[in-house]
Write a sequence for this structure.
């Protein structure tokens, strides 16, 4: 049975629609990440699930039961807030046990539950401290502990790592992954950080402007974005989008780039009618330097070379278009020279330039 | 730490001393007057420091005898405590929910400004309607009636002060408590009010001072020891044909003590509230 079912969910504030019809279904043990830029409605959606906001229309079912109009405490959820929202006047033990205390769980039972959670999160020595006496990472653990202790049907996370520094964020990301594997919990997680989304999620919902643009597992989102928006939002550096026209050359379908200089080989499954104009998408890591004499090579003028350490990011000019390639750090490329590049035919994606929708889904 | 040149240090201390003197001198003079003999106070040139210490006025005001100044003073002290106490308590009871509602629901925010607006009306403008109202209710010359009037003065600005205190408590904390299963009253009692303790204390203290020092309405709406408050009683001491400045000063000193003591106690709570916070994430 699905732990969470959302159907036709709408939320309007005065004249603006923040959520414009959200449908999704979450199975037990799934880790769903709501990914999108600020203002896309992802936090609003989370707050609707939590019951902190009332949806204008639609239904939310948790564990098969509609929770629209149900008080947050009766929804069998717990939530970790961006600011942690710890109770500053209570010590860590009471912070974690607060939910149980409010639910009149006997003291001994409560202490045992808190001790268990503290053990899992390795914060046992901190139980008598106040939140003000904790570091950012420790506060984060306490906030997670407070959510864990009640063992709810669904955990909600609202950008929980965004207040941490980069190193700690990476650590907590691993920690969250570990916890999810350990507990098999059902999680809805809001973030604007695509690394968090890619690493944590079993499924990602990429949101824009109150709608879900694509709902799929991270690999599909990355490899087969449903539209140009998802293609541009996920991945850094972003996917190269080049205007092109399809043509047939012999047995192969090729795409002519708009400036007419070169053609690109396409997967045979991508048999498209000739003359169709498309937006061609290719990830920077699917572009490599051509071997001399290699067919379907395109020449571009290298404008900038950035060595990041594990890779070399090359920005080059192809006609009027800029392209980004992610090359081996040992590649000999210098800015100013004109080089031949090859696009991996299997990694090329085509989109309808008018609607932005993906035309081909190579599986 | 940055070192200041000595001249600057001297100037800063001098300025502080002048300020302290300006604030404390009147009260110091009040205390001196209260323990000076009548002859010291009326001699020319004035004896700034008393030749002999005279505590008789304290005895006079603090002993209860039929129709004595002491009886009138002590009953007015009791009335003042009752009226101010009830009014402050009432202001908090009314102000806390009002302030919370305004702080958490911006759509009703206008109401607090309306309430504050009513506070801008001069007391004189309201005295006649209030008098008629109290009369109709049979609450003239009655501590409950006067406390009710004070409540109408105190509640708006108490709510206003409390609102700014509640504004400082992150909403997410209340949301978290809500999800944790706390009822609204539990959230207020266990989290919001303790976290807003400095604002609550300030509001209570301020309300107490305003209520304690109020004179105009007390003068209009009370007539004898059943409801007369300290401010009116002290004024009565000055109203006779022969005025004993020493006695008025003594009454002033005694009248100042309760709020000063309460203020000091609350001050502790206030400082404690400030240090235990740590709301910042």
């Amino acid at each position: 049975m699905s732990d969470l079912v959302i159907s036709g969910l709408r939320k309007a504030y005065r004249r603006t629609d923040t959520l414009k019809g959200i449908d999704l279904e979450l199975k037990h043990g799934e880790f769903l990440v709501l990914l999108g830029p600020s203002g896309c409605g992802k936090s609003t959606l989370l707050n609707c699930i939590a019951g902190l906001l009332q949806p204008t229309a639609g239904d939310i079912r948790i564990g098969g039961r509609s929770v629209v109009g149900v008080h947050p405490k009766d929804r069998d959820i717990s939530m970790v807030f961006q600011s942690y929202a710890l109770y500053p006047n209570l010590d860590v033990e009471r912070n974690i046990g607060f939910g149980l205390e409010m639910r009149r769980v006997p003291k001994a039972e409560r202490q045992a539950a808190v001790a268990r959670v503290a053990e899992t999160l390795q914060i046992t020595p901190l139980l008598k401290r106040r939140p003000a006496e904790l570091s950012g990472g420790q506060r984060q653990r306490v906030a997670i502990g407070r959510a864990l202790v009640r063992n709810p049907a669904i955990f909600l996370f609202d950008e929980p790592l965004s207040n941490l520094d980069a190193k700690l964020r990476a650590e907590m990301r691993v920690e969250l992954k570990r916890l999810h594997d350990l507990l098999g919990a059902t999680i809805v997680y809001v973030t604007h950080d695509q690394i968090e989304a890619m690493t944590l999620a079993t499924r990602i919902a990429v949101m824009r402007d109150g709608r879900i643009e694509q709902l799929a597992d991270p690999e599909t989102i990355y490899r087969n974005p449903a539209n140009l928006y998802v293609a541009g939002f996920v991945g850094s550096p972003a996917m190269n989008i080049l205007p092109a026209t399809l043509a047939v050359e012999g047995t192969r379908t090729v795409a002519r780039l708009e400036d007419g200089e070169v053609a690109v080989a396409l997967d045979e499954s991508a048999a498209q009618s000739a003359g169709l104009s498309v937006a061609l998408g290719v990830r920077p890591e699917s572009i490599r330097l051509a071997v001399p004499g290699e067919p379907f090579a395109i020449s571009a003028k290298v404008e900038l070379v950035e060595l990041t350490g594990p890779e070399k990011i090359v920005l080059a000019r192809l006609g009027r278009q800029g392209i980004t390639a992610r090359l081996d750090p040992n590649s000999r490329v210098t800015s100013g020279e004109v080089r031949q590049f090859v696009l991996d035919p299997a990694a090329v994606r085509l989109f309808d330039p008018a609607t932005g929708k993906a035309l081909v889904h190579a599986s | 730490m940055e070192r200041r040149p000595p001249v600057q240090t001297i100037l800063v201390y001098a300025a502080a001393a002048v300020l302290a003197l300006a604030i404390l001198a009147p009260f110091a003079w009040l205390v001196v007057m209260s323990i000076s003999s009548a002859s010291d106070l009326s001699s020319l040139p004035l004896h700034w420091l008393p030749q002999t210490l005279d505590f008789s006025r304290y005895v006079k005001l603090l002993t209860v005898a039929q129709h004595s100044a002491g009886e009138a003073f002590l009953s007015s002290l009791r009335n003042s405590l009752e009226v101010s106490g009830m009014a402050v308590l009432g202001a908090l009871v009314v102000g806390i929910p009002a302030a919370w509602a305004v702080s958490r629901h911006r759509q009703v925010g206008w109401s607090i400004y309306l309430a504050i607006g009513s506070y801008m009306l001069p007391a004189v403008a309201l005295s006649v309607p209030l008098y008629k109202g109290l009369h109709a209710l049979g609450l003239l010359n009655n501590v409950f009636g006067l406390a009710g009037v004070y409540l109408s003065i105190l509640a708006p600005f108490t709510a206003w002060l409390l609102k700014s205190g509640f504004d400082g408590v992150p909403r997410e904390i209340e949301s978290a408590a809500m999800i944790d299963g706390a009822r609204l009253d539990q959230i207020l009692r266990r989290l919001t009010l303790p976290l807003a303790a400095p604002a609550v204390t300030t509001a209570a203290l301020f309300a107490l001072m305003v209520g304690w020092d109020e004179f105009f309405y007390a003068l209009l709406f009370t007539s004898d020891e059943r409801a007369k408050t300290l401010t009116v009683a002290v004024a009565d001491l000055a109203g006779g044909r022969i005025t004993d400045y020493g006695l008025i000063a003594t009454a002033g000193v005694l009248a100042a003590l309760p709020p000063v003591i309460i203020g000091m106690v609350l001050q502790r709570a206030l400082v404690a509230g400030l240090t235990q916070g740590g709301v910042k994430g």
Summary: Residues 1-54 of chain B form one domain. Chain B has two domains: 1-54, 71-276.
